[in-house]
User: Fold these one by one.
Assistant:
Number 1:
Amino acid sequence: MKVAKFGGTSVGSPKAIRALVGIVRERGQSVVVVSALSGVTDELIATARTAASRDASWEARLEALGLRHAQAIAELASGAKRAEAESRVASLLGELREVLTGVSALRELSSRVLDLVMSFGERMSTIIVAAAFREAGVDAIDVDARGLIVVDGDFGNARPLREKTDKAIREGLKPRAAKGVPLPIVTGFIAATESGETATLGRGGSDFTAAIVGAALGAQEVEIWTDVDGILSADPRKVPDAFSLDSLGYEEAMELSHFGAKVIYPPTIQPALDRGIPIRILNTFNPSFGGTVISEDAASSAYPVRGISSISSTALVRVQGPGMVGVTGIAMRLFGCMARRRVNIILISQASSERSICFCVSPQDREAALAAIAEEFGPETADGRIGAPIVEADKAIVAVVGEGMKHTPGISGKVFHSLGRNGVNVSAIAQGSSELNISLVVDSKDEAKALNAVHEAFFLSGTRSVNVFLAGTGVVGGTLLKQIAEHRTVLSDDYSVRVKVAGIARSKKMLIREGGIPLEDWKTLVEAEGVPTDLEAFVDAAGELAMPNAVFVDCTASDDIPRLYPRAFRESTAVATPNKRANAGSLDFYRELMRTSRDSGSPYLYETTAGAGLPVISTLHDLIVSGDRIVRIEAMLSGTIGYVMSSYDGSRSFADLVREAKELGYTEPDPRDDLSAADAARKALILARECGRELEFADISIESLLPPSCIAAPSVEAFFEELERQEPYFRALIEKAKGASLVYAATIDDEGIRLKLRTAAIGDPLFGLRGPENVVAFTTERYSKLPLIVRGPGAGGEVTAGGLFADIVRVAKSLV
Ligand code: ADP
Ligand code: ASP
Ligand code: MG
């Protein structure tokens, strides 16, 4: 014998009700419990409040409610069945109108009257559902649970008197039997006190009705039919990666539901647990899903954590003072005074110093809690033994639940690590000694981020995601997007790294999409749906959105954008960039970048600022951390100069080659940045600073490759014209070299940084470079006889974007 409860959405439309009828016909459950049509309970409350405030619009709301129910009947039943249902619902609406007229006249809405008003939702829905069954040829009758469930007088949150209720159900409710007995369609949620007054079991209480009925009748199983595939590892509306659970224990279900997993109303578990009846959560809209079973002997989970839930809105109250230390009875008085004011405590945490106790209450209980404390601890507050309570509103509670956490070390470490990495601050913690639940209080704005971060840490074993916010879609940025689009599936399938581009900012427009921007036509999307670019807001969004591992990728050559990096770091957003302006800015700013990245634990990745995709910075870094000392770096750091010089043999003009380098994407937007050696000097400065040399750009000695007239040209075009005119100057350079290879070398040593044009013979690490090749030769204490050499193409969209992509993946894999 099975009891099946169908929730609000499962009776929310005629189509859903037909699906419900089909499910019961096929499976033959013996008792059906239903909620009000979805949204109706909320609407009844709102209508009653409107009436109480003497706002005449309550009548129109009541009309609309009546219309919705009448339409459902018209669609589901015909002939005499329809007429009967219509007249019964109409008479209920008449009764409700009288109640509301009274509310409006008295301008008062007590919880007693509100319960009566709410009861109409289920009283109407059962009539409709029973009619739909009869229309489908199944004999069914609607049953008012006020004749079955006897409760205390706690209106709005009534609790059954077990013995009386069990007796009433056993005597009054006949489950559908093989022959003759119609299928009872029972109102969920509502009950009556011993004196016959209508009361409700608390919002979401229809689940509870099903368990109470199932327990009284000794059902073999209680089924809860809802709108999702059972209980998921987290609320699917907040955690897109949540997955359905096959089974869980009663206590786990209790903890998850108590801390916000709305899919099952917390008190539902107790009657089932007492009688050892399994509860199965099923999906009306996907009946082939086998269900999540809550039972005593739930299979142990593959993970130590079974699920994660949250309460979005709570207030954290802290009571503290020297007068609490070592004094017995404080906690008793504190929680006693709360109980007297009917304040429900959601979570408690007390420091072992006993100097403070903090606890969470619902926002609506906050004033009552403060009043209770003021009254109870008046004398202590007056003489300073206990301070005025401190309240932090806008808090959320996240609960991590699982039997498997018992005696398993490292669980809280993992929770806090994942929160810390994502910049979520934890204000209070509670873990019961049952080790079944770790509850954390965080800022409400961090709720979804915390849920997703913890979910990823426990369930997506090994999978890491990274959320890219890209600024600048020129050669490097554009290529990066192309590479991500091409390689994403392999990364996710073979390496468990998921890269999502959540934001793109171009010079005029930017677009942020929490779910990810489709990369096939990002340009059209940003243009069509983007908003005017505001990079501060862009960086802030990366920190604020509920996504783990956010990384701000600066693909501009801007001087200003790096000023936003510290702001990103402080919001726990990593920064990855090929923009040299940041690390080659003032020494003070360089220090600030390093410090904020380190202090906030947010990775800063700038491998591509020197040698593009070549492993220059990482090699240098590895040498230094492993205790080597850098004696000298001899390098060719300009892809553009390298490309032009290695091709310049007099057959084509110097200007022509520079133009070609620009077209190939080797140059900075203004090629003078490369040819004046400013760009190479910045790279040298970055390497020198990485070695610990405290230098400013002005300390670098640069012998420019360009004559001053080229540098002074007012525009890029004018510069090219001047370059043509200066062809003889460049000719003279190669003639002077007499066939030896000419290189533009940077030297970094104890004396500082020098850049100049020189010749290189065979054996010189800078000899024989081709095209855009860069080379960096490290002479160190360990590599003293022969230098360690990193060499390869050091410019170009593909290699730079590739290096940047690798940096981004490093953020995801926590390799930094
Ligand atoms: P019903 O009206 O059928 O009682 P509810 O709206 O009360 O349905 O409960 C189902 C909803 O609970 C789901 O739509 C889902 O958004 C929410 N929910 C919260 N946490 C969870 C969870 N861990 N698993 C499944 N659903 C959850
Ligand atoms: N209709 C009631 C509510 O909305 C009970 C339920 O749906 O479980 O709270
Ligand atoms: Mg519910």
Number 2:
Amino acid sequence: MTVTAPPLTKVPNYINGQWQDSTAHEWQDVVNPATGEVIASVPLSDTTEVSNAIDAASAAYPAWRRTPPEDRIQPLFKLKQLLEDHQDELARIITHENGKTFAESKAELRRAIENVEVACGIPMMMQGYNLEDVARGIDETMIRQPLGVVAAITPFNFPGMIPFWFLPYAIACGNTFILKPSERVPLTMRRAFELLDQTGLPAGVVTLINGGKTAVDTLLDHPKVRAISFVGSTPVAKYIYARAGANGKRAQCQGGAKNHVIVLPDADMKMATQIISDSAFGCAGQRCLAVSVAVTVGEAQSTFRDSITEAAASLRVGNGVDKDVQMGPIITPQSKARIESLIDRGTHEGAKLLLDGRHATVTGGERGNFLKPTVLDGIPRNSDLADTEIFGPVLSLVHASNLDEALAFLERSAYGNQASLFTSSGAAARRFRYEAPAGNIGINIGVAAPMAYFPFSGWKDSFFAARPGPRCRRVLYREESSGRTLGVRPLP
Ligand code: NAD
């Protein structure tokens, strides 16, 4: 596939229903990670600019809050159609600025569209409940109301999907919404907001503000911002959770991850290998639900070690616009260097390199940030490699004698985003569902990603919430013989 590069743009902000050139003094290059080419310049908007955007969103709130829910969702129906019509164009932008393959970009947009579809059900979902005679002659009613101006701060790895985890629900509920996307990938949302502009939403209901830490801090400190949604790394999630909480705001902060899969000897090894390879190396491992550590039990050790190394070695790495490519580049040269140094550290700590993806050569990608899949065997339990989120195409293997020992390995992780088990044993599957310490559980599933109509949150250092609901988790099952997903069941 050939893609014509767009002209170099200065990314504008979208405030009060208008595109505005930023007055920022600081700007940052947006770089195509496959080619090293500078494709745009993004403003690091300052406090005054962000405050003006918040004021406009606040001014739009009273009228929007009084708009009936049925009317509030009409622009979302238009948005769904516009996203469908422009899916290929948006996917090309994602690949251009993030590096993932065109197929992966299209897949994340499908998830974005599903969230818009689900938010169209707000007139039902937002209903409260009531009970007569809670005391003699007294009835009680619970009503859901919007909060006011709410904001989301999002990461680089899903530029098309993650903003739509929040935007459609926030505005359908009657809030006005501000998005601060990752400054590394601002172009996808720039185009998405051009589409939002065509939906007939009143000015100020949705705002796009580009920037970095200063923009985030302004959102966190401004009294008119009532709630913050964040997705990104754990250190920043902790910071945002603390600062938003100290300022009396609601906050839901999704952090980083270190996801484990346990492979039992009774697993269908061919299926397990394929699915775990997709999970570990899809999106070049830059996915918060990617498998990072595979714990093999008993005889699974040697079969799985050989098959996963072979599968990883066969992946075609390159520019995601090329339709034969299965894995794209790493987001920045700095991230690539960090991953390489973690691999170095792992080998010094005693792990054996079964497949070394460093020093990858990719034809035509000499200036890109390419790494090939890497597989390390026998990482020591207390090593940096066992504990640190790598966020790259690196799979570490460890071995356990039984399921107890394997579960103990998961228990010691600081993170709890996802855990998966590959087995054909119903008893082992039930025990895993019951005991595995993570918010998203996969049985014969490599990426236990939630459908839009299920909640998504990790446990431990993968999620921080100022007003957490009941601890919940989702479980995805796959019937091992056919590979068919059987259902999605939350624990009671
Ligand atoms: P990041 O934490 O560096 O950045 C996320 C956002 O925070 C960006 O918009 C950025 O501008 C802002 N930010 C960065 N540093 C900041 C600071 N010091 N103060 C205020 N704001 C700051 O994350 P990233 O590198 O863009 O994304 C990768 C991370 O996101 C990984 O750790 C991954 O696991 C995590 N992630 C988690 C989920 C989830 O659902 N749990 C989903 C996707 C990604």
